[in-house]
Fold these 4 entries.
Entry 1:
Amino acid sequence: MTNIPETGRSSRVTIRLIAIQILVVSLLLTLGGRLWYLQIRNGDEYQKEARGNHVQQVVEPAVRGSILDARGMPLADNETRLVVSASRTELMKQDDEGRAVLERLAKVLGMKPETVRQKVRLCDAKTPQPCWNGSPYQPIPVTDDAKPQQALQIRERSEDFPGITAEPEAVRRYPAPYGANTAQALGYLSPVTDEEIEKAKDTDSPFLPSDEIGRSGLERTYDSKLRGSSGVTRYEVDNLGRVMGEAESEKARPGSNLVTSLDARVQAVAEKELDQAMKKARTEFDKNTGRNYKADAGAVVVMENRTGRVVAMASNPEYDPNAWVGGISGKEYAKLTGKKSNYPLLNRSIQGLAAPGSIFKVISTSAAVKVGYPFDGNYDCSSSYEVGGQVFKNFESKGYGNIDLGRALEVSCDTVFYDLAYKEWKKDGGNMPKKGAKDWFYKTAHQFGLGKKTGVDLPNEVSGRVPDRRWKKNYWEANKDAWCKQAKNGGGAPSYAERIAKENCVSGMKMRAGDSINYSIGQGDTLVTPVQMAAVYAALGNGGTLYDPTIGKAVVSPDGKSVDEIAPHPHGKLPLSRKTLGQMDKALQGVATRGSAAWRFGEAGWPQDKIKLRAKTGTAEVAGKQTTSWLATYTDDFTVVMTISQGGTGSGASGPAVRNIYNAMYGVGKDGGIDRKKALLPKPHTELPKISKDGTIVAPRDKRPADDGTKRRVAEPPAETPDTRREAQAARNEGERQQRQRDSARQAHDVRLLAGGERP
């Protein structure tokens, strides 16, 4: 007999089969439910995401707006160039990370392979320039100066150059009309970074990976206006990359144009005169140091008195802003940021700090009058002044006897101001200051706008320093530990440095008599910038109103229909009565006609009866360096302030240059005669240039016969120039412009032929 049932199955096997059936049915139900959830419940959402995975973006960069001078001349615009770019994303997919491709590319472009590799590497803390500091997913420009034949080779042999493109693009250009460099005021561009893209994504002005943004100067301040918005076209593609259709598109919007108050002609003169003044100073012997003046840096600011608008702003050493276009080389970057070249990226008009010397005396005069000293009183201008055994000398140890404050300004008498400052220091309690000490000399400086930023529409302005009691205390607290440590002497007689350190350690927070005496003539710890002093002297020239210095004058839409003017912004009043302003104005005229600047103006044929000029010279002593030259001047309409570091005296080093700037602006000849036809800017610009829809610019009509008010193209220099040198420069600029247009047209034509598969 057998114990196997007729069915051939045991009860245990049957149970297992039922369990398997239940499991299979459960899995089928689960799978079906999941399919229903994906395809029906959330089908639309996942379908949209799936389409998104097969959408490719094509970015059309926006044309950046131009920066124009007050007459419509382009200081920064764009030109079409053939740009060769490399995609790191594509290069990194290759086995050798694109090394072979880059070597082939270098051969075609006539560049060194190492140079090409450096351009496409990413910047970090350990990687020096050249490198790419933008988004790693954005094509990286290798050169913006490719020749059509090079672009043809790359396009025709695309299989040899995966990830490499050659396309015509609009590239930033700084044309330097009349030779006006304007580098520090204009600034420069560089690619946007991933961090900046992320930070700006929810703002009114988001970035795309292809964007470039302003890093300094006007390019940075007005970046959101100039940049416009890039266009994006999204295409649906299959998994093989074939275009299936257009998903959506956003048209590019060009950036607006910025009209500035700068006059390119005056800017060119200011730059040239500053440079020549520095070169001349280097030929002069400094008997105090036994060597020629170093004249290592300088700045000049030309400003409208009644608006605070900047007509010219020059800083030296200067650089070519075109160096940043298309990526900067390692050699050029080292030059721009190195100590050897004295940091030309610095805008010394707003960032250069120095003791002001005697041009500060207008503030000390104002303080003295405010305290109660009469402007026309008698003050002893002795050759020296002694306090506590220390002798403070007058400049060149010359005395003038009893004089009033006006004459003290004219001859720049130091000892008059020493005495006034010392008397006020004693009234305030001396080394043991009274509670609520008045400190009029220091408070007046703050009321003149010193010790804080002027509000100029440029980034990275510095505030300068008024060394009042609060500053002394803060400075002592920050340095006392180092002073006290230096003061400790291990034995033997202490050195001079150790004695000074000990004194500072014990009483460095006190305002000493010597501090106030030096301060009264703009020496000691006082620091100012040229733009601060220009704002001060412009206020003296307009009746007492302090304005924010501004360069931007209007933002104009690309078609010229929308004009957003930037109004002058006053931020304070000088603490002077109308009477004192008039007395001081007369004294500053005396500086130019019979005082310390007379040999550069009044005695040198300046037409004072027709164009009233006011001036104040300054020669600031700096520990361990040669003297700093300052000259602050103004007429009824304009202020010109110049400074040269380690350049010598105010009238000696800066005087001829400032005189030549005024000569050019007013058309004054060497004999003092005035030729209105040669005058570059006898009156401030009051009208804006008009921009037409096609980009044509109509210059504002000057109120002088030399200007016929005819239409001019953006990049076309005007026919008339003040002298033959500028005429020749304008002709060269025009020739270069026309050649660039011809090159751009040829490049665009060749690329269009490429797109059609033809050879030129």
Entry 2:
Amino acid sequence: MVKGANVGLATLSEDVGSVMVSLGWSSTTGEGDADVSVLLLDGDGKVRSDVDFCFYNNPVAGNGSVQLLGKTPTADGSEDRISFDLDAVPQDIEKVVVAASRYEGSRFGDLDDLRLTLADSAGDGLVRFAVEGADEVSAVIFGELYRRSGEWKFRAVGQGYASGLAGLATDYGVDIDDDAGQDEPEPEAPGPDAADQPAATGQDGAEPPERVPAQACGADPVLGSAPEQPAMAQEPAAPGTADPAPVPKPARRPRTAKKKVTLPRTAKKSLADNDTWRTARLFPVSALKSDRERETRATSVVLSVMAQVPEFGRRLTAGFGAPAGRMETFTEVTLPHGESPRRPDGVVRVERAGKLWTALVETKTNGNALKPDQVQSYMDIAARRGYEAVITLSNDVALEGSPLVDVRIDRRRKHKVALWHLSWAEVVHQAQMLIRHEGVGNAAHAWLLQELLQYLQHENSGCHGFQNMGAAWVPVRRGIDDETLCQGDARALEVIENWERLVRQVCLRLGGELGQKVLPVQRARRGSDPGARRTELADRLCEQGRLNAEIRIEGTPGVLAITADLRTGKLRTSIEVPAEETGYPLTRAKRLVRRLSEAPADLHIETLVDGQGAGPRGALERLRPEPADLLPKDGAQITGFRLSLFKGMGNGRGSAETGFIRSVDEAVDRFHAQVVTHVEAPAV
């Protein structure tokens, strides 16, 4: 689409009761991010109240019809996804605006390939709009969904706001607190009628702090709303009389939202006599003996918790086009299929406004692969019965452009069925995010999720995520050692794909533990073919003998790089820290060494200088008494420092004690805990 164009969604697809909107961008450095926000507008073009402002501190709006799903990895980076249940949008909402904003003085001109894509409930792309000319603005309206004659349409907008998200939000009736930055005692929860608050822009038009959504009045106080400021109102003066004194407004009714419940990281002290006493679990695993038993119990456990904990069920299904409604789940359902009925492992059904959304579930545990003929039969059954999706759940991780199962799609069928995949690692990640960081509705739900985590993480459950580098791992390592691996070898491509799966799982695990966004960085042009990119990386592996990856952890000053050198058997984890702008070079070096006072003595530090030349380097143990050794002898300008740790690499292809996968997990965990945490915030 081009700027200003509009199109009716019903003319593009029949499955537009719920749609998925994705916002994406890229940068030459692999850095740069933005926050997504959605505004629900009435017939006057304003929000009804501040609860119609959907952003990272208020991710659900419109009675659950709009939900921010966060970032999802793609072949060349990540995208922010937003789920819209258009059938459930309140009737008095006539327009939905989709926008994004940057913060801390950043502008969209620093990013490339700004774009919006829209897909139907089956996952088929319907709309693509590239935003241009947003160089000097910090907020952009990408597009809007609006009603016309009872049908939903999409308009490509591409309008920028130099005043940032504060200016955009106030234009649509959202009130931003002027004094949000002041230190005040803990307030009462703000009322829903926060529309009387002063606007964000000052008298001289100066822009307020960029990350103002966290202070938006009307947001859930548990999710980070700002203190409410008392407002004064004046009655109009009678003719010929002086203005009366200001009269304070009546106190607002406090919000009645319940506080979200999270669980502490450390368990309470046990009352057991000794370690041999086992805690009674809701989902026992000690009696599991066969793969069939593991699959049956894992499916029943996950589906039952999805139905009982709405936040968890919604997290796992919203990305698949499911509406926000009443969910019921079933196991071992028999469905007719020719002469031999089929029994999928589970069925998920969601009811919203009298309409049903149904997905069949096929589960595998303990590293067992999905069977193409089995999945194909479920796709055929779903198409005949009018179901919306088939969901596969296994330890494997799906990659864009490299499907786990190849299925045939009958284009003659009017009804389309979407095929989606979940990894057990993603299920664990979503449970951790809810009970450790974001919270759920009540303590019983938190306990259920805790029991689910205990089950999934038990060694007998078979739900351990990606755990095998594949049959090509050992031959490729040997071929690199004896220099017999040639470019174009299919085994090298298999190793590259499994390496990408491992890195994505590392991001899920670390993100669930930290409660932060952890995403892989793909330094490739957006829109490039994932298969061609992996082929290029496979050729590079044959030539250099190294596997490389980068992950970005929210709140850290740089990108965490992982290098597995298959020739030397060494794992290197590193991060580049920019040099502070103040102080003399020696002062900067001393500050860095002080911040690393608790880091391992074998930490390797290298000075980064202007130009292509390498700077001084050395181990932290030697540099602690002599920080001046980090200074370039020729007085070159210091641009930053590279911090690295080295570790032996496991030989096996699995996740055993001597396995490669476990060695990568341990290397990343050690580097983050002992190095990254010390350089997250620059010294003052």
Entry 3:
Amino acid sequence: MASQEELFANIDALLEEEPQLPPPAERARLREAAGITQARLAAALKSTVQTVKNYENGRSEPKSPRLEAYQRLLNGWAAKYPAHAAPTVPTAVPQPTAVPQPTAVPQPAPVPDAFAGPAAAGAGDKAAPAPAAAPARPVTRRAASRRPAEKKAATTAVKATALDPRFPHGPLAVLDGDGCAYGVNGIVLDCPAATVPQLVEWTLKESGLGSPRLHRNGKDGDPLIVLTAAAAVKLGLPERLEGHEQRRSLRLPEDHPAVKQVVKAKWQLTQRGFGPWARIYRKATAGQRQCVQLAILSWDALDARFWPGVTEMEPAEIARVLGVYAQRVITPRGSTAVSGLELMTAMRPPTRAVQDRESGNWVSGHNPGSLGSQPMDPAPPEATPEHPVVVNSGWTGGFLNEEAYQWVRDVDLLSDEECTLPFAVGLDLNTAFLAAAARLVVGLSAPDHFHAPAFNPKIPGSWLVDLSQIDVDPRLPSPFTPDGTRPTGPAWYETHTVAYAQELGHNVHPIEAYLRRETGAYLDPWHDRLKTAYIDTLADLGVTKDLTDTEFLTAMEQHKQNDPAMAAVLSAIKATVKGGVGKLRERPQGKAYKEGEPWPALARPTWRPDIRAAVISKARVNMHRKLNNMVKMTGLYPLAVLSDCVVYPSPGDSPLDFLPYAASGKPQPGGFRLGPSPGLAKLEGVQSMLWAVDLMEKGLNPARHIKGGDAVVDEGE
């Protein structure tokens, strides 16, 4: 029998353990019972409202010393406002019907979500029936053993939209090695599949996964199953793909047992093969798509540059990250670049149903405002040197060079006053390319060739113009070239670049042009959806439009720590913008490619280098316009510009020390302004002025080092 000393030692050890808090739902109940707002509680804890929200929905837990203070408060409230009765947990009872029914396990404090179907609505609601074709094994929802139910149920609050009963369990699930498929809103499904074909059958017939179309003329989103390393091994796949090339370019060989199983079960793989993002499908029958998207985490399906920290998260948290992205952007179908391109097509479907006048039948027809269903050859100056249009025609007339800024000021042009300033401060424009896509008119038809046309800023296209005679202050980059140097003669420019030369007061006389007669704001719905996703996700991280500039800078310093999951969503949204624009001019990939041969990307209607050029041209012109206005308002000149980041000399370590403000305290229009919206600026980095000058003397761009080498509009995967 244990001695008194041993028992006391055990009790003392328990007392010394980290204090335990009540479940998140109980924390919220106690605060509301006390009549205290989240803002008031945040002030008492010396924290933020968003952090308190995270405590009450299970996204994060307080750390010492805030943990002990919070527990003391909750214990005091619990003594004053005890719960009247502990909730009972109903036992899941099979439905008395031949169709399998998902049994609901009550989740604490459910949050409304666009993907919360009837089965996720609450313990008192009836579960939604699975499709009639489902086999006898029921789909069950259960609390997973590896994480508390409260943690799994935590989800970002989103505006509730109309629910689609066809997809009661949301757009995706993350499958672990124990057969648990973690979905959105804390749903956990039992997946009995032991092979890839069985997983595909279960997904289509039993899981209740998928997403409704984003446009009435579009297609429903195929379900996504994300495989952890353990799940991949259980299904007979290698844990990793190994090879000399980058892992994301690898595929399983055709003689691999898993590939043979897929083929034997009469399923097909796309031309991309069985890689990190594998699509398995059968031809549609009776208008019903049969397609499942797989993403294999251990094969680097989620690039850590764009999904930071996600692959190290628990399956339930991965489902939360991808679920929010799917709800706000699109269900991932590949890299963020691929998803950006897919979103363009989903928001502007190429076809719609039209009635044939002669037969009266409904047939597929062109959807006005879209890029159509067939690829279109670019004008020779819009293409790349290896494009068949260029190689086959022998074109030697030059090419568009509309790229983002990579400019650094000559160190000899620094004034003595600038050299005495102690800091170099980097400002980054939020999603600058997304802001440039707003109300951007682009060509929708094939290009027509014109000689000596009169310039019209309303017509999208490519113009051969001589802008070399235009003088620009050498302390600013030239608005006409990516490296900021003065043009040396006639060159091809996109409409926005030529229009800006005209805006600066210069007469332009195009030598020739390739213009498009049919035009439209093709990217508008793409822009609107991504802008909303970006602003909503920043708001989840505590960065909102109503913050003052000082509060905004403080919030931006902390936003990644507030919720790493939502920070990963924000990173993915930004990468979707840049990658989507970049893939409009995807270059050939692979050593086997030969110049003049078409590459797979050219078969897409969305291979449109002219649209990419229009976005980048407008973004670069917008940047130069702000630089020019800053000179007029403050007399300040930039040290360097890289893409959407500009570095200024500053007397202090904050942009508030040099940005232009009116006497009323409001920011001056026309220059750089702080804020969370696309096109507005945020602090990107602070260094000493000596550091910046040293880089400039070495011919290096300070903005690149402040941003950590942030990539500009990538054209690949």
Entry 4:
Amino acid sequence: MALPSAGGACAAPLAEDSSSSSQGTDVSHQPSIRIRAQSDATTGANASRQGSAISKQTRPEHVDVVGHLNRERARIFSGLGAVDYHIDQHQIGVTPGGQNAAFNQILLRTPGVVLDSYGEVHVRGEHGGLTYRVNGVLLPEGLNGFGQELDTRMIGSVDLLTGALPAQFGFRTAGVVDVTAKSGESLKHNQMSLYGGSYNTFVPSVQLGGQHGKLDYFTTISFTRSNIGIENPSAAFRAVHDVTRQEKAFSYLSYQIDDASRVSLLSSVSYADFEIPNSFKTFDQSSPRYTTIYDLAGVNVLDPAMNWANLNDSQTEQNYYAVLSYQRTTERLNFQASPYFRYGRIDYTPDRDRDLIYQGVSEHEVNDFATGGMQADLSCDVTKNHTIRAGVLGQYTSERLDTNTLVFPVDTTGRQSSSIPVRVIDNTGNWSVEAGAYIQDEYKITRTLTLNYGIRYDRFASSFGNEGQLSPRANLVWRPNPATTLHAGYSRYFAPPSPQYVYPSTLAKFSGTTNAAANMIDDATKVEKSHYVDVGLLQRITPELQITLDAYAKWAHDLTDLGQFGRAVILAPFSYRRGRVYGAEFGSSWKHGAWSAFGNFSYVKTAARDINSAQYQFDPEELAYIRAHNIQLDHQGEYAATAGLSWTAKRDMAYIDFVYGYGLRSGFANLKKEPQYEVFNIGYQHTFSKVVVGKDIKIRADVMNLFDKRYQLRDGSGVGVYQAQYGQRRGTFFSAVFDF
């Protein structure tokens, strides 16, 4: 039984080509590239996916209600005018590893995304700055470590929104990663999966989901064990000391109160142990034995047991979050309110003696974050040609850094003056409040021309600063015909830093030791404020082929960057007084019968001058050079490309996948760059339907880095770069997925 149309002044009917892009139910097409040109989050690009829509006449009423509420939620978070790279179940399936792929590998197959070390991805020349949303609800920002708690198995679809974002998106604006969790029909697939292969990788997981009356539920639990937890710091096939163990659990509950409202709960738990791979800049690999730098009382530095290969540094990461949402759709209003909470911890445990003799510092660090907040958004069609959207968001974050450090005293020349270490204990904390409010109007000037304009006000108050800004936004979208969409936009951005300020009192404690700061300048990181423009074209050349071209530029004050400034993998913010970023992207997707393909290419150029916060982390000579010269940012992936070709039949799937990168910076003041690399991956999957137990079994094999390309992401130098990193060598992985 079909749900009646929720017409009225605040609920316009869906456009003719609407097919609920928010649900991600289609598994037969490559992800579409689109410019959000309609308030229901659908565009002409969705026409290629209409065949996936389930007929309302044949679906149960409950599923109709779920689909209707999903569509109305998409109207609240339309993102009109933004560039939208949509990733569906098919694209996830043809990514190396499939549903076992790390979430960063899913994002990497979209234009403008560059791979870096520690699993980081950079969007359009930004180090961080990504906002993560699940079902339209903001996920509080976590710690800047290297674990990834988002589990690919819970995804129905993903949209990466970039460009000149409308007023409803604030704070982290490099891109919005909008995840739609599995719901409705996609829940009816209980699975047990076994994945493993090279590097002693073993990943069992289970997914359970279904519908019981008005309740939808889904949960996934996984365990990972591998000998390649972090990128190898050397070109060797296997890193020394690099085992990881990770546990993750995600759950989604949604209860339909009535045909117009529902309440849902998202919760996630992740716990990960990482061994830090053994390599130091100070280690001389040409030495007949090994090189130590410092003497330690009671320890024979020539004892083979003290060799660098026996280092035992490790790091534990924990992340927990919960988001409760209430959504209501009436004749006059679409509304969603969501309180949320998140807690995270990074615990770095050193190898006392070996850390002291190799780097003169042994520091136990515990960094805690806790965030609580509330988000509320609404949309209303006040007239035929005007849709008003408005919302507020406020959150409070508490950060604490506790360190217990052993260091050696030094003389006035900086040389070690005693072999007996001294202990320095420092416990500090920060707090921050972020608040924002917006209002915007989607004005349909003509049938083909739409202006989405608005304004937002943001405020950032913290233990080290207080700033605010009024930010205008505007996007113009023109669709002269169903195959062509052009857009142009301007946004004023306000991006607060994470609250990780180290106070001068902490620096003073380490004066006269082997952990002394490079200098005593310690300005707090400020809010990044920028102007951003974006223009682009989406063209459907044939019903099977579409392309997009997009260009952008950004001019920033207090440009925020992140760096690693010690053995612990905890990224800390710093900023440049002035910065600019500009670039261009090309994307394409093609579908013909069982065949589909995509190809992306991007170019980005960055420039920044004068580090104006956390200066104590940098050598005075480098600071002086950057004060007088524009430099390129270390995370600038100047050229990047991804491509893939896949063939999908009823029971079989095969793919070939390609990733290219060039231009990450290195050396003094980032004056050098890393060499280019290109990596090929292949995979095949077959489904056995006639099985004794369960519904079917999918057997899959993936070969990653097919030609065993040795490529370096980092050489251990560059502004804010601590250690060398190499990409993964060739690996073969297998999986078996049992549906029941």
